[in-house]
Write a structure and sequence with these properties.
Layout: H1 2-16, E1 21-22, E2 41-42, E3 45-51, E4 54-61, E5 70-77, E6 80-87, E7 97-106, E8 118-120
Parallel strand pairs: 6-8
Antiparallel strand pairs: 1-3, 2-6, 3-4, 4-7, 5-6
Signal peptide: 1-21
Protein name: IMP dehydrogenase/GMP reductase
Keywords: Signal
């Protein structure tokens, strides 16, 4: 019974979010990690969500982070895909945003079919402040 109550609470929380489905970090332990060269540095994210065929990330910003400063790298993994958000341009501004900034990419922008199964590989970092 407790498991049903916990599940109901999680579903209520998910419904309270504005159309977002939170994404857990999933990395199969029995499969090798691709080591292909990718651009930039892996970006720690405050949160990530997959909603309506979009990937939404909240990332740190010193005040000047723009979508062009980040790139989602997509790789196939079994029946789905794994997205790794990478920073390709450093934000050198001096007005940090404690809550970070939201960045979105559509599945189409990332070359994914509508309704694709995806997971996010980035490490999580609490917002500053």
């Amino acid at each position: 019974m407790k498991r049903i109550v916990t599940l109901a609470g999680a579903l209520a929380l998910a419904a309270a979010l504005p159309g977002c489905a939170l994404v857990d970090r999933f990395m199969p332990q029995d499969q090798p990690v691709e080591t292909a060269e990718a651009p930039g540095q892996i970006e720690a994210v405050h949160a990530a969500a997959i909603v309506q065929d979009q990937a939404v990330f909240w990332v740190s910003s010193n005040g000047c982070t723009e979508k062009a400063d980040l790139t989602p790298v997509v790789r196939r993994d079994g029946e789905g895909s794994v997205i790794t958000l990478r920073r390709i341009k450093e934000d050198r501004c001096q007005q940090p945003r404690a809550e970070g900034v939201e960045m979105r990419w559509t599945f189409q922008e990332m070359g994914l079919a509508p309704g694709s199964r995806v997971s996010v590989e980035n490490p999580y970092q609490l917002p500053r402040g």
